[in-house]
């Protein structure tokens, strides 16, 4: 999961990371967080449908990497649709028509062509080539990750953790029950979270909402340098949505919270509990069923638990997390 690196006489713990993403404004912040962190070896980025279509998510990911001067990071296109059923709609009402408030073209042009062979092939190659286990951070629908786990069981041992932004404990954002990433491909989410094949951390929107940033935080980031200014310039449509969702002038950096945990394990407090995903076509489709009962009570029931428990993020030092974001996004 980690290796040591010496920088100006100080040994750092370096996390090997791959991000699977559907940019998306908060995805852009999350990619930049990893790309600018000196204690991260960003091995690659894979893209998936979600907030907008695959062409846009791939273009956006490549442009954010170009903004961060990370043309060394390979990008591969993944799934354009869910594993089984058609995707009902995108999240343009949150992220704008191009995923970045209509401002994707303001970012630098990509420095590197898209990798041939697709996302699953790139993920497999990066795992095969790594001497150490790799952390995968899916911050969009889980279609690519479910496909990788099914196609390459021989590589499960090369995955340190899968740190997932998704799910909700109390209520959803796309429906009353479901959070967008899980709702977008519930079958894939059940395959990953219920399979028990690799260690999973689930970062639900209940926690990410508590970590929202306000206008003052964004203004400070915009004034910090060219990267901070470029990132905050992508937020108008996103801010307009979250003013309604939050009731105040701020926004939620959902995906960056998951990337923070991937970079700095333990920055979020987690509880290991069984998790299942509702895959029926009723009103609860895409809901994450997180069993937070005491283990003694769960043991008394006759319903067998499948797979390994999932580490669900339930708390953090919110001020410290916001500082973590600001310090790393203002390195430029």
Automatic annotation (TrEMBL):
Transmembrane segments: none annotated. It comes from the Bacteria. Keywords: Glycosidase, Hydrolase. InterPro entries: Inosine/uridine_hydrolase_dom (IPR001910), IUNH (IPR023186), Ribo_hydro-like (IPR036452). GO terms for cellular component: cytosol. Pfam families: IU_nuc_hydro. This is Inosine-uridine nucleoside N-ribohydrolase. One of its GO terms (biological process) is purine nucleoside catabolic process. Residues 17-321 form the Inosine/uridine-preferring nucleoside hydrolase domain. PANTHER family: INOSINE-URIDINE PREFERRING NUCLEOSIDE HYDROLASE (PTHR12304), URIDINE NUCLEOSIDASE (PTHR12304:SF4). One of its GO terms (molecular function) is purine nucleosidase activity. The keyword Hydrolase applies.
């Amino acid at each position: 999961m980690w290796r040591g690196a010496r920088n100006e006489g100080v040994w750092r713990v370096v996390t090997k990371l791959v991000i699977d993403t559907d940019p998306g404004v908060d995805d852009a912040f999350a990619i930049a967080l990893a790309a600018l962190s000196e204690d991260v070896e960003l091995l690659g980025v894979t893209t998936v449908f979600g907030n907008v279509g695959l062409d846009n998510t791939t273009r956006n990911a490549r442009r954010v990497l170009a903004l961060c001067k990370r043309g060394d990071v390979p990008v591969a296109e993944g799934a354009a649709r869910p594993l089984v059923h058609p995707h009902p709609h995108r999240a343009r009402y949150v992220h704008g028509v191009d995923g970045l408030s209509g401002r994707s073209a303001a970012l630098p042009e990509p420095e590197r062509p898209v990798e041939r062979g697709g996302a699953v092939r790139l993920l497999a190659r990066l795992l095969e080539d790594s001497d150490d286990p790799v952390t995968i951070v899916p911050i969009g629908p889980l279609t690519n990750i479910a496909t990788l786990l099914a196609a390459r069981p021989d590589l499960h041992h090369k995955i340190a953790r899968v740190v997932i932004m998704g799910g909700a404990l109390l209520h959803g954002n796309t429906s009353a029950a479901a959070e967008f990433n899980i709702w977008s491909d519930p079958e894939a989410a059940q395959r990953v979270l219920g399979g028990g094949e690799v260690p999973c951390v689930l970062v639900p929107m209940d926690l990410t909402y508590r970590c929202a940033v306000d206008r003052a935080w964004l203004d400070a980031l915009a004034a910090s340098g060219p990267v901070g200014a470029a990132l905050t310039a992508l937020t108008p449509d996103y801010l307009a949505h979250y003013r309604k969702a939050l009731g105040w002038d701020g926004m939620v950096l959902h995906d960056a919270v998951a990337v923070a945990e991937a970079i700095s394990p333990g920055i979020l407090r987690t509880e290991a509990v069984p998790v299942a995903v509702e895959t029926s076509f009723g009103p609860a489709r895409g809901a994450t069923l997180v069993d937070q009962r005491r283990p003694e009570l769960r043991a008394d029931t006759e319903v067998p638990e499948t797979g390994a428990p999932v580490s669900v993020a339930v708390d953090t030092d919110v001020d410290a997390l916001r500082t973590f974001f600001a310090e790393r996004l203002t390195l430029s």
